[in-house]
Amino acid sequence: MREDILGGLRLALIRGETLKKAMMTFYNAGYKKNDIEEAAAALQQMNAQKVVTQVQTAVAKPVKKVIQKPPPQLTTTQQVSNYGAQKNFQQPKTTPEVSNYGAPKKFNRIMVILLIILLIILLGILIGIFLFKEELIGFFNNSFN
Predict the structure, then answer these.
(1) Could you report the per-residue pLDDT of 41-76, keeping only the tens digit for each?
(2) Pick the residue with more confidence: 11 or 98?
(3) For residue 123, what are the domain limits?
(4) Which candidate among 38, 91, 106, 107 keeps its CA 20 to 30 Å from the CA of 52?
(5) Residues 20-34 pLDDT 10s
């Protein structure tokens, strides 16, 4: 069993991620599926043993304390035990969007107006160059001679 995968899965669970999501992260990073499943099974077994010891200590305590404050590892263990039935990796149905190419964009009206004005000015300069081509050539010839 790979200790680095086990440690990574354990840290992901501590941060509040689901075991399935953590496993998919390792799978997408290029780790072997069998290594990931083996580490997840070991983690599940370790967490199951923790739950048994927590239940044994909870039985020894008064019932009021157990009801008021459940052990914090219980939710993580439930996530791990929910994974036990599912061992195949599937791509998530929704993929996160990297960009908003398909979404409608809100243009700033001022920016659009400024760009239109700039376009009109540049077109005017271009037309002026074609109309006064002879005069411009003569002006530049006289300027540099």
Answers:
(1) 888 888 777 755 665 665 555 555 545 555 555 455
(2) 11
(3) 109-144
(4) 38
(5) 998 999 999 999 999
Q: Do both 68 and 24 map to the same domain?
A: yes
The answer to whether residues 25 and 71 belong to one domain is yes
| Residue 102 within a domain | no
What is the residue-wise DSSP string for 65-117? HHHHS--TTHHHHHHHHHHTT-------SSPPPS--SSS--PPPHHHHHHHHH
Query: Structure pTM?
Result: 0.37
Q: Residue 98 domain-assigned?
A: no
Quick check: 54 and 74 in contact, CB under 8 A?
A: yes
Residue owning tokens 């006289």: 142
CB atoms within 10 A of CB 40: 22
Residue 132 to residue 123: CA distance in whole angstroms: 14
Tokens of 36: 């990931």
Task: Examine residue 56 and state whether it is found in any structural domain, yes or no.
Answer: yes
Q: How many domains does the chain have?
A: 2
Q: Does 125 map to a domain?
A: yes
